[in-house]
Amino acid sequence: MNRDQALELVESKVKNDRLIKHMLAVEAVMRALAEKLGEDVEKWGFVGLVHDLDYDETVKDPERHGKVGAGYLKELGIEDDVTHAVESHAGHVARESRMDKALYATDPLTGLIVAAALMHPSKSLGEVTVEFVMKRFKEKRFAAGADRDQIRSCEEFGVDLKDFVGTGLKAMQDISAKLGL
After folding, report:
1. Structural domain that includes position 85
2. Which tens digit of pLDDT belongs to each residue from 141-157?
């Protein structure tokens, strides 16, 4: 499945525009991380794009989130490592691969970065700095839904926190027009 087909699949399953933007942000960060770590950029981007494929269907049943999406992907013949990453980001199976661990950490990072952009005086990703995000990261009540421990788990795949934030921020800045920020 190519990227255009994956985006079509996402748009057929996900009706919330904000969620699609989140999935695009996770895709961008995952691609940047793969490039940084010498991993498969297309595969990592793909898993970022489709990771919340089932969210609309499972929003009221979090025990099924990730499992349903992985099931859809398996039916389409998508590789096991991708479906495993989708399941593991929701905590249903152990995070084993670097891709699993990166997806898990990236998911809340994108929300933290968006929240930082929205509270920045410019309301623009382009004006946000790593230092600005790191300052917000330390504020427990700021973007409380962005699990700090989950973001800090970036160290499990060999990237320190500040570098992770910087990589994520740059990737999101590169697609800021698509994100509306």
Report:
1. 3-179
2. 999 999 999 999 999 99
Long-range contacts of 94-100 (CB under 8 A, 24+ apart): 95/156, 98/37, 98/39, 98/157, 98/158, 99/30, 99/34, 99/39, 99/43, 99/44, 99/47
CA distance 78 to 181: 32
Q: What is the pTM of this model?
A: 0.96
137 vs 135: CA distance, rounded Å: 5
The DSSP output letter for 94 is: -
DSSP state of 146: S
- Give the CATH number, domain containing residue 13: 1.10.3210.10
If one counts the domains in the chain, the total is 1
